[in-house]
Amino acid sequence: MRKEYDGVYLVDGEKIVCDKDSEFLTAGGRFSKQELEMAVQGTMAWSILKAHNTSSDMENLKLKFDALVSHDMTYMGVLQTAIACGVEEFSIPFVLTNCHNSLCTMGGTLNEDDHLFGMGAVKKYGGIMVPAHQAVLHQYIREQLAGGGKMILGADSHTRYGALGTMAIGEGAGELVKQLLLKTYDIIRPPVVLVYMKGAPVTGVGPQDVALDIIRNVFKDGFVKNRIMEFAGPGIANLSVDFRNGIDVMTTESSCVSTIWQTDDDVREWLRIHGRERDYKLIRPARLAHYDYLLEVDLGKIRPMIALPFHPSNAYTIEELNENTDDILNLTEKRCSEQMKEFGLKMDLRSKIENGRLRVDQGVIAGCAGGIFENISKAADILKGKSIGNDVFQLNIYPASQPVFQEVVEKGIASKLLEAGANLRSAFCGPCFGAGDVPFNGGFSIRHTTRNFSNREGSRPKNGQLASVALMDALSIAATAGNKGFLTPATDWDGAYTKYRYYFNPKLYENRVLNCFGKADGSVELIKGPNIKDIPEIPALNDDLLLKVSAVLDDPVTTTDELIPGGESSSYRSNLLKLAEYTLSAREPQYVSRCKAVKKWEDARLVGTNPFETDGVLKEVGACLTAYGLPFKAEKTCIGSVLCSQKPGDGSAREYAATCQRVIGGWANICREYATKRYRSNLINWGILPFTNVDGAEFETESFIWIPGIRRLLESEESEIEAYVLPKNGEQSPHKVMLSLGYLNRMERKILREGCLINFYRREKCEG
């Protein structure tokens, strides 16, 4: 793949001209210098952002979205926060889907209690409820809401509908709450990366192959991080809309903030089939468009891919892996075992090699990435007349929605799959985050889902369990299944794929989806099951802050699944104190107990006790600060824990990665950089100070950091502050470090001063 870092122009949607060659564009008077200067406005992203920006400043955007979406692992957080902030009615369509916590796998009635609460909220405030097993959230939005020129905000990181002409962003609950309260999504206009697609994929290459090839080329160097990926070029015409959707949803793993694709008659037809041709809009770059960066993708050069544990960017061609199986698996084992060393676990993948070939234990095709009709139908063609065998290997397939499932049955596709030995199941996101199809201990699964982070497949390292997932395309998963689990690229299959005429049956949603938008009924009483608890009170920030380091993570990247594991904790999303017990449980087992010990000091301070007088450890801290002439005053100092890491927050948008830190006393993160904007936003909305380490200082677990004047800093427009690290042995003087909060707008600064978003809105309501 070709990368350009200095910017490029796209001319007539086809020709690429680098910035350094821009004089050729003005030669002969084809374009004026003014047209070149205005070319930034020629991108597709610019026009959509401009249409949704409520301010006149296109550099500092204040966006309002056309619709919101959340699922049952995140909507309780949105609802509870919105209610605490005083929401009275949903002002824009807000879709709640029940596609994550669909099964009562643990906790008895907890999941269904949340579903009942969500249905009550839909009736009371005017939302839209999609019942369990009807559709995974992103497929429902594709089929029912996404369209040309729209913007949609979702409480899920894979909120991507760019292939249908919609710019979509995945964020934490707080940002959705702001939209429900008629506030804006504030962001500095992101740079735009032109993803120029040319050529056509060879037979046997699917959307996941293209996505993984892109991810491995851009993730490690942050090439598209917090940027918009804009897909254009002649290669797009060689991709079906299902294929485009499959690539688009995986762009989240590149760390981009959003996507947009050029649209064409294929998109119009896709929307027409789904009864929404009115939502089609032709979207193209202008005759001259300027981009900050270029990623050129030659579709014809991509081959079937496999992303080995524990990240989608750890990708190889299947051919590479089959030729160098022992070496590549040995390297992967070392990396994964290092990540699991806290639990004394070692990854063993080379034991899966039989007679020189890698044999896997399980295959899964599911969710918003894998459960698309075209993926399933092609997988069935590959498996027709074959058997997956009657040994360990199993294959489970989850159509992404009931309409897709119905077509799989009606078109005879289901018969091919079932006869081969595959299992067909209803729409469910569980296999993607560890709430379904958990492999046996030591098992190795290949999946067309979105992520393969550590323990995301559902194993519990703290209990001595370790399984793993590799990401692959549905076609190669089917080819592998047809060979009884021996790793096989779909390019080895020489058959022909059936071309189906897809029919969408709207009755499946009309008869089950509850649509109360515009029909709010304030008299509805919300039913709270025994697990549903109110959000705990969060204290406001004092003048100064004393932090105790509760964990130091040295991994290059820390995922949200490590910060708060998805599968085993998912039933407790409406009980934050219970959920918080799982914080960092898959990474640092002592973290929660350390945080709770620190929180006892702050709790004592809040009820009027001075812990700096009553606790021996804090007495020493106060004495140390005073002895070295620092202006320490106990009555002005609040106390909290801090998580120190290198690059936290890769992956999910779930806000609980921040919320759980906060409710057990977390008051700050200190890191080199944040993996995603959404994790940093979640920290801010929950009152956690998002520090970066300016001078590269190293911190030790259980050391103290004192930050004087933190509230005053937030009342100013400054970002950097001096902090003092206290030596653990008490024999040396505190040493100074510089910390930065980076860019914060006025609202974010006030949220941090008030302690969290809820406190901010309560204060605003009282003052208003």
What does this entry look like structurally?
- The protein is α/β, with parallel strands linked by helices and 768 residues long.
- The chain folds into four domains: 2-59 and 190-297, Aconitase, Domain 2; 63-186, 2-Layer Sandwich (Aconitase, domain 3); 339-503, Aconitase, domain 3 (2-Layer Sandwich), CATH 3.30.499; 544-767, Aconitase, domain 4 (Alpha-Beta Barrel), CATH 3.20.19.
- It is 32% helix and 19% strand.
- It is built from 29 helices and 34 strands.
- Strands 17-16-24-23-20-21-22 form a seven-stranded mixed β-sheet, with helices on both faces. It has a seven-stranded mixed beta barrel with strand order 26-28-30-31-34-33-32, surrounded by four helices.
- Helix 14 (373-383) crosses helix 16 and helix 14 runs parallel beside helix 18.
- The longest helix has 16 residues, at 110-125.
- It is globular and about 80 Å long.
- The mean pLDDT is 92.
Total beta strand runs:
34
CATH architecture of the largest domain: Alpha-Beta Barrel
Which structural class matches the secondary elements? Answer: alpha/beta
* Low-confidence runs: none
Q: State the separation between the terminal residues, measured CA to CA.
A: 54 Å
* Rg (C-alpha, Å): 26 Å
Mean pLDDT: 92
Placed side by side, the strands forming the largest sheet appear as 17-16-24-23-20-21-22
Portion in strands? 15-25%
Shape: globular
Compute the number of structural domains: 4
Count of DSSP helices? 29
